[in-house]
Design a protein that fits this description.
Number of domains: 2
Low-confidence stretches: none
Shape: elongated
CATH topology of the largest domain: Rossmann fold
Helix content: 25-40%
Strand content: 5-15%
């Protein structure tokens, strides 16, 4: 039996759809189909007319078409004054938030695709004039459009496939796990993110880890050194497998020279400081690695810096490897 997926776009840039279209496959629809996923409608992949889409939505609500997964991309725009009329579904005369509430009530699973749909994200930045929120969160507070107690037909809360944009592999793997009935409550973390990617840290497999270990820090973005101490990197705090599951098979933010801004977490869009800077207190970064007490970090950082090899110090402040590791003979060693 096929697994029917309906994808709607709400308030956002469409970046998660663009990311999905860059999935590491020559034929995305065929890959989904091979995994038992039937895409009922997607704004960038479907040829159906406006009239046909509205008929499909009615069929889903009436039960004539089974809705296994409702995927929402973009924040839910509740303004002005809670009416939702900042975002009307074209041709329907009704706010998108009304459609999302109704469709969520008949869907077996509800997925927030990207951090805007999960927490409000960039769309909820600043004064948030549009009253943007996530499906089941408003920033880091439970609630959102559907409310804290919402559960889909499967008994699960909203599945937050968070990221800005989210990785195409996270979307595809989540849908295929659901189609195989292999994703359950225990497979979601405390924020409703699939643990297959959220149980990792962006720090894992980062190519700058040697510099991190010795606290050999970059002074400017083009340097090879660790970006945590001076340039705002939150890879040691960010739940994602970006440096293990590379983007387009070969890249990540850090490999491209950009600090991790922890875009899979609520509140990333309003860090309270410039993204490329690290706020400090008495010279110590305020945002420390996950689960590391401040005293431990201070002690380890001091010890690490005192043991930093000259090669690492020099390379950390360069845009290329200036001093290569010296070969060492193992002759005569056990």
């Amino acid at each position: 039996m096929t697994f029917n997926v309906l994808w709607l776009q709400s308030g956002g840039c469409g970046g998660c759809s663009m990311s999905l279209l860059c999935a590491d496959t020559p034929d995305l629809p065929a890959q989904l189909q091979a995994g038992g996923v039937n895409l009922l409608w997607h704004p960038a992949l479907s040829l159906a007319s406006q009239h046909e889409l509205l008929q499909l939505l009615d069929d889903c609500l009436s039960g004539r078409v089974r809705l296994d997964a409702l995927c929402i991309e973009g924040a839910l725009l509740r303004g002005p004054h809670g009416s939702g009329r900042f975002h009307m579904l074209a041709g329907s005369g009704r706010p998108m938030i009304d459609w999302v509430r109704q469709l969520s009530g008949v869907a077996r699973h509800v997925l927030a695709i990207g951090s805007c749909a999960a927490w409000g994200g960039i769309s909820a930045s600043g004064a948030n004039a549009t009253q943007a929120c996530g499906l089941q969160y408003e920033d880091d507070l439970p609630g959102g459009l559907l409310g804290q107690t919402f559960r889909s037909g499967s008994g699960l809360p909203v599945i937050n496939v968070a990221g800005c944009p989210t990785h195409p592999g996270w979307i595809i793997d989540t849908l295929m796990l659901l189609a195989a009935d292999a994703l359950h409550a225990s497979d979601l973390d405390a924020l409703g993110r699939p643990r297959f990617y959220a149980d990792q840290l962006v720090h894992h497999a980062c190519t700058r880890n040697e510099y991190y270990e010795y606290k050999a820090s970059a002074a400017q973005p083009s340097d090879l050194g660790c970006l945590m101490e001076n340039l705002g990197c939150k890879g040691t705090q960010a739940n994602a497998d970006c440096n293990i599951r590379l983007w387009n098979g070969e890249g990540s933010c850090l490999r491209g020279g950009y600090a991790c801004i922890n875009c899979t977490a609520p509140g990333f869009q309003n860090p309270g400081h410039a993204f490329q800077s690290t706020p400090k207190l008495a010279g110590i970064p305020i945002g420390l690695p996950t689960d590391m007490p401040k005293a431990w970090f201070v002690a380890l950082a001091s010890l690490s810096k005192s043991a930093t090899p000259k090669r690492v110090k020099i390379n950390a402040h360069s845009d290329h490897v200036v001093v290569a590791p010296a070969p060492r003979s193992k002759r005569g060693r056990s």
